[in-house]
Design goal:
The structure holds 3 protein chains of 3 kinds. Chain A is built from 12 helices and no strands. Chain A has helices at residues 10-44, 60-69, 81-100, 116-124, 126-137, 141-172, 177-186, 204-217, 229-232, 243-268, 283-308, 314-342. In chain A, 48% of the residues are buried. The model of chain A has no long low-confidence stretch (mean pLDDT 86). Chain B is α/β, with parallel strands linked by helices. Chain B contains 5 helices and 7 strands, in the order H-E-E-H-E-H-E-E-E-H-E-H. Chain B has a 5-stranded mixed beta sheet, covered by helices on one side. A two-stranded parallel sheet of chain B has the order 6-7. The longest helix of chain B has 14 residues, at 23-36. In chain C, a hairpin with a 2-residue loop joins strand 2 (47-53) and strand 3 (56-63). In chain C, the strands form 3 sheets. A 3-stranded antiparallel beta sheet of chain C has the order 1-2-3. Chain C has a 3-stranded antiparallel beta sheet with strand order 6-7-8. The two termini of chain C are 37 Å apart. The chains are: A mainly alpha, B alpha/beta, C alpha+beta. Chains B and C meet through strand 3 and helix 4 of B and helix 1, helix 2, helix 3, helix 4 and helix 9 of C.
Amino acid sequence: MLTPAIELAYWEQSVLRTVGVLAAVLLPAGTLVYVFLFKMMSFMQSRLGPMEAGPYGSMQLLAEVGKFIQKEDIVPWRADRKLFALAPYVVVASVFLIYVAVPFGPDAMFANLDTGIFYILAVSSISVLGILIAGWASANKYSLLGGLRAAGQLIAYELPMVLAVVGVVIQAGTLNMQGIVAAQANGEIFGFGGIGNPFIFTQIIGFFIFLVAMQAELTQTPFDMPVAESELVSGYMTEYSGMRFLLFFIAEFASAGAFAAVAATLFLGGWSLPFVDLDTSWMNVVGPLVLLAKIMVVSFLVFWVRFTYPRFREDQLQQLAWKVLIPLSLVNILATMALKVAF
Amino acid sequence: MSDATGTTDAAEAPEAEEAPTDDARQAVLDQITAALGDAVLDSHIAVGRGLWVRVERDAWLEAAGHVRNGLGYHFFDYLSAIDWMPSPWGRYEYSAVDDGIRQFDPNAPVETGVAGGDTRFQVMCRLADIRRRQPHHNVVIKADLPDDDLRVASLVSLYPGANWHERECWEMFGITFDGHPGLRHLYLPGEFEGHPLRKDFPLLARLVKPWPGIVDVEPMPGEPAAEGDGEETEESS
Amino acid sequence: MTVTERQQLAYVDAQAADGRVNVELETDEGMILNLGPQHPATHGTLRVTAKLDGEQVVWADVVPGYMHRGYEKLTEVRTYPQVTTLVNRIDWLGSFANEVPFILAAEQLMEIEAPPRARHIRTILFEMARVANIVLFLGDLGVQLGAVTPAFYAFRDREHVLDQIEAVTGGRFHPNFDRIGGLKDDLPKGWIADTKAVMVRIRNYCDEIETLLFGNEIFEARTRGVGVVPAEVGLGYGLTGANIRASGVDWDLRRDGAIAGLAHGDVDWQVWTHPDGDSFARCWVRLQETRESTKIIDQLCDGLPGGPIMAKVPRIIKVPAGEAYVQTENPLGAMGYYVVSKGDLGPFRTKIRSASFSNVSIIPWLLKGVYVPDIITILASLYFILGDIDR
């Protein structure tokens, strides 16, 4: 809801919300694709990346979108047509649903849910279904292998993610996303209240676990067994081409942005700036930009690791989740509880 | 295909007094002859270079077994065959320059090479011991195969690496290996007919378009004019 | 029958033939996965058919031959100088190294010795072929395992090696430079100094890849203990090169082969082995070999003798009758040519003993019981080139 000075009918609000969520999903996705995939990866590999389309290749993504839209729609003749078509939409839908609960400013959010972070974690699991459907419906053994690997991996890494978040929730005292932002902005570090108390300092272990689990949830290297390019060609996405592949591609980077936004909100203070009051109304405009900047910081870490490391084998991946991350996050929760009670 | 005359291969006469002898290889040869006895039909030592032994076809597996277990040559280098018949198409060049077609005589006796031989097909394998790190611990074993019965024992039971080499030999020459777990095509597609490396299997690309032969009659800088036509010049790249 | 009908029949025939190799046993336990001829993991058109039980391989079959060009038959219609052009293309990444054993075999039969300068330069180019080949292997190793970035550094540094090879021979990939009795041409001016600078670069690259890839815990977890080849089994299959040295067998043809035509005996270098025999060992041995090659090249560049580049060879080369077999330590392993000559202008029969053929023959034995990702690791660490397998 915007400032009370303007009264909008419900349908006008819905239109604004729709356009807003599209912008909220696609703008970070596009920025991440250009800055990290096209440019950072290229510079890391001693090359320039796309330079032709637009100044320094900035229009490359638009060119790619245009290319994908005009491609022929190929469905393998033994594939299950309805499920094959459904899978990309399921994955994309889950990303949109995550953005609904992320706050962009004091009043700029699509839905201020009391169970904000709980809802986000629940809804982020829907993409697993989409990937499984894609793997099965493609009628391709490589896709099937990729889909099954994805199922095991994504479900396994949900747990460390949830447990890492529990530490934050304990410290903030609320599940509400705006409340978590407020807890960070209004907090104090040993009496100094200037920059607030971003939970990254106290929840550093939780932040690390969240980043690793996030890398796995996004099926990025080193956890990209489902899409192991040198083994399964493209894993569950092998049979997808054209617009359907574009949906998977957008979903991959949009969910990177979504998880980065959640991480920024939980650990870096969300849309709040230091030394700025939480209620100021111009933060509704500046807040999204601040959040975008923090998204870029978190995504930088994610993509930097992605372009450097080799990939884990499936059983090593599972071992890491079950034997290392979960015990570590449980220890983190215990420590947080003890310290919260003590201080 | 005339033999080169005038060039003597010094290594081909180990019996001459002035020629150098290869004692190490001679010792290996003596060991093999002692173990196999009459099965060794012929042998040849190229001083400082190699040892060839020709055995009877029926002693093929026994010879390899002795070389492996008695001499300790566990390294399997390769197994292949040689078809000693000259090609009926000569060098596949225009008949004006190529005498091979005119000279081909299907009834001529087969001329074989090192360590002798009587038949058109010879199967050969090379075994070595590389752990002793001395260059003379290797031997090439050859065996003649009669034209009407191209079979020989398989070495897979001794050297697992022989599997692929024998498959290739079978598909290229048509030699059957008794005891091989599964002789099937290695390189060629499943329905291929014929055995390509035999000399009577033509090189189809050259039949379609014969090679001209004469390349360049221009003299090299500083040399007299080229020889008369009909002689091939060295291909300068 | 119309053209389309013929085409359709041919298509059906091809499918049926393929189907016979790739029988789907739907009712059986396990699924047959075809790492088909087109696959990012195989260095070319190699086909690995694996029967999987979940993610584990029950049996695997390797189907080579998609690139068989019939080299042994082709050499029978060529003259001796023409054969070097042909055999360049067997192992196309280390292409000068393919010419060397054949030329040495011909020189052996002709009783000709190349002058010392030619011997040294031949060895330098031989080692540069090795450097070019293995540097690409190190880069590609990362890609197979998922790390995409090291490959670019490999190509960047390999460019300089290829530039040097091109400066001498005129060709980056297919030099066609070796001649019976010597080499085609001498070195251009300034080449030695440039080569030494390039070797410094390659050494830096080796250090970089050691920290970036070999020091990475994930890389170690993926490669240690995977695809162990015991030395006895390796010998039985004819494994050569870094593959057998990684199983602890101390054998290198450059030192133990008594090859008269190359100058390795004149320089000071060592052979690297590793006792483990797993994929990590094979990759590690190759890394050390690259460093060793740069040292060899440096020493040879320093001690380059003067003199002619080519011995006195008749204009028309006719090799006397005889048989010779020369084996050299090529980048991929031990490559040898068994040349049968009948005193003619060209070889009567050439048996090409290519290293990758024997290296790949062990794969069906090696893949029993491994996981699917380990297939890729094993294929990557054994390192073959399709041209070398298929000839």
